[in-house]
Design goal:
Elements (H helix, E strand, L loop, with lengths): L11 H4 L8 E4 L2 E4 L9 H19 L2 H6 L1 E7 L2 E8 L2 H11 L7 E4 L2 E2 L5 H18 L13 E6 L2 E8 L1 H12 L6 E8 L6
Parallel strand pairs: 4-5, 4-6, 8-9
Antiparallel strand pairs: 1-2, 3-4, 7-8
């Protein structure tokens, strides 16, 4: 069963808050964002990923047991979907995956939801701090000329850092090593597609 997306087009002013905290820039009738400038996805793919993510959250939110007693987070990047968070039983983990399976355009789904008691506010806050530290560390990746941290989608759950993006093999090696060496990171999970390095 394939799901259709509920969002097809949005005015620029409504679109801006959905772009993950990016600053919207409107010039000569075109809308761009600080992160999309260096994004290797096309603009239509960025919008499709965001629409799939929102639609998937709608499906999860309709399941009150999943919403009220557990925590499931969804990330989507270039047709790859990642599920993280905590649920109390294996059945709930599989239910969450079943609910969001079937979106057109998703060719890889990684279910890394932990079966455990949901972690509290302070643990979640610490995960957010780790994400910030990883982004800051990658912003200083001087061994990769022209590399921009906005090419990677970074998230953290239970001190596990998830990296999503379209990278060259050289970029992958560097960014994974950077993430592994950030304080409090226990594990790094890479969910990448690959591109060839630009020819000099």
């Amino acid at each position: 069963m394939r799901f259709s997306l509920r969002l097809v087009a949005m005015p620029a002013l409504l679109l801006a808050p959905l772009l993950g905290g990016c600053v919207a820039v409107v010039a000569a009738g075109a809308v761009t964002t600080a992160s999309s400038v260096n994004d290797r996805r096309g603009f239509s793919t960025v919008m499709s990923d965001k629409n799939i993510q929102l639609s998937a959250y709608d499906l999860l939110n309709a399941d009150k047991e999943l919403v009220l007693k557990n925590r499931v987070m969804i990330s989507v990047y270039d047709g790859m979907m990642l599920l993280t968070g905590e649920v109390r039983t294996e059945e709930l983990k599989q239910r969450a995956e079943s609910l969001v399976t079937g979106f057109e355009g998703i060719d890889r789904l990684v279910n890394d939801i932990a079966v455990m008691e949901p972690e509290g506010f302070w643990s979640n806050r610490n995960d957010n701090k780790i994400t910030g530290r990883v982004k800051l560390a990658m912003a200083d990746a001087t061994s990769l000329p022209g590399f921009d941290v906005t090419k990677i989608k970074i998230s953290t759950a239970h001190r596990v850092v998830y990296l999503m993006g379209i990278l060259t093999p050289e970029e992958e090696e560097v960014v994974v090593e950077i993430a592994r060496n950030v304080p409090d990171v226990e594990r790094v999970v890479k969910i990448f597609k690959y591109t060839e390095a630009p020819k000099s």
